[in-house]
Amino acid sequence: MAKIVVAGEALIDLVPRGPGALAPLDPRRGGGPYNTALALGRLGTPVAFLSRISLDPYGEALLDGLRAAGVDTSPVARGPEPTTLAAATLDAAGSASYTFYARGTADRLFEAPAELPRGLRAITFGTCSLALEPGASAYEQVLRRAAACGALTVLDPNIRAALIPDAAAHRRRFATWLPHVGLLKLSADDAAWLAGGDPAEACEEWLTRGPAAVVLTEGARGLTAFTRHGRVRADAVAGPVADTIGAGDTVNAALLHWLAARDALGPEAVAALEEEAWREALAFAARAAALTCSRPGADPPFASELA
Asked: How far is it, in rounded angstroms, from Cα 34 to Cα 83?
């Protein structure tokens, strides 16, 4: 069994060919957790996907994409409900906003498995799967169980405000997850939405509430790791930008790949990383994200592209 498990939704992104609300749309495999699993598989890290995927043709295409990347799909449950759709709209800078079609879809009906996958050392959560019930409570149950077993738990809130009916309740719920999170990774926009203030100050405060480290992504301004030894920054990698879809998910995968390669898949190991190690990890994640941004949709790089 894979050392790393990615838990969460798989959906179809309807990716525009250009800016504007009426740009033609191309269907692409997506969903934050799905993109993370795909990226880990392409990087050559043993990874499994824990989710519930539709039996419809989109669901088959999603599974085909995971298998082609070498992702273990044995933990995936199937259901007759349709696949969630996320229609993206791009602004002039390539930044995406989303409209979701998620009512009654397969991934919302995820149920926690009776047992955690064998050999689990790290597991990551985020995006729609932690916002949409009844699946959100099931994923939360898995998060707490994994943390109690000593696995490195990774959380990427990846806020999609349109899917959250009660913002205040979601912020309170986020606070209850922190004691069970080993590594918190989020964007500056996510941090501002969750904290209602300065993202860096919020990261410093969250660091005191459970996580061994917090990684903040700021797009073209780079990445910052907030650790118990201080802050470490890395610049973004300049290059062409088709869009930013999947960039944060690629950062997730790249960090986990880097940690796995150094046998650092544990909250204590993450807490012990020193400044130079974090600088190397963030630089690797920045290079991987830049490659994802250089092509349309969530199309993360292969290991050969980062050699």
From this structure: 13
